[in-house]
């Protein structure tokens, strides 16, 4: 049989304590992982240098003032004339960008009606101008 408890009391300990060895190995492993240089995956691109002229894009602007008046490129228009001008701008070869700039105090109902008119006309390129004034 194996060693009995009585005989083991006087005999030296036969097992090696591996806990400090494992601790040292883990610390060395962590230090080794930290010191390994990271490989960065980079794609070399030859980007063109800026400096070419920026092409001016055609745009129309709709302004809405506090009183609810609607302006097409600084000319006051009614709803039917607005819809006619929207359809005419869409009929051109390249649809121009439509910029909508309501006044901060304009009624939401008027802005909503103008946006509905724009949508019914089939405009797909629209930008809201002046939203940065509302950021706080």
Feature tags:
single chain; alpha/beta; Nucleotidyltransferase, domain 5; five-stranded mixed sheet; 4 helices; elongated
Provide structural commentary.
Involved in the TonB-dependent energy-dependent transport of various receptor-bound substrates. This is Biopolymer transporter ExbD. The accessory proteins ExbB and ExbD seem to form a complex with TonB. The chain is an alpha/beta fold. The chain has a domain at 59-131: Nucleotidyltransferase, domain 5 (2-Layer Sandwich), CATH 3.30.420. The chain has helices at residues 5-8, 19-35, 79-91, 108-121; strands at residues 59-64, 70-72, 75-77, 97-102, 126-128. It has a five-stranded mixed sheet, with helices on one face. A hairpin with a 2-residue loop joins strand 2 (70-72) and strand 3 (75-77). Helix 3 (79-91) packs parallel to helix 4 (108-121). 6% of the residues are buried.
């Amino acid at each position: 049989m194996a060693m009995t408890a009585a005989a083991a009391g006087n005999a030296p300990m036969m097992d090696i304590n591996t806990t400090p060895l494992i601790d040292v190995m883990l610390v060395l492993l962590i230090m080794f992982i930290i010191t390994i240089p990271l490989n960065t995956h980079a794609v070399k691109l030859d980007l063109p240098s800026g400096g070419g002229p920026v092409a001016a894009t055609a745009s129309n602007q709709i302004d809405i003032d506090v009183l609810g008046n609607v302006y097409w490129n600084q000319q006051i228009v009614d709803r039917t004339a607005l819809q006619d001008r929207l359809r005419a701008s869409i009929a051109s070869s390249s649809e121009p960008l439509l910029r909508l700039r309501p006044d901060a105090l304009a009624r939401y109902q008027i802005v909503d009606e103008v946006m509905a008119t724009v949508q019914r006309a089939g405009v797909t390129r629209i930008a809201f101008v002046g939203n940065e004034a509302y950021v706080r």
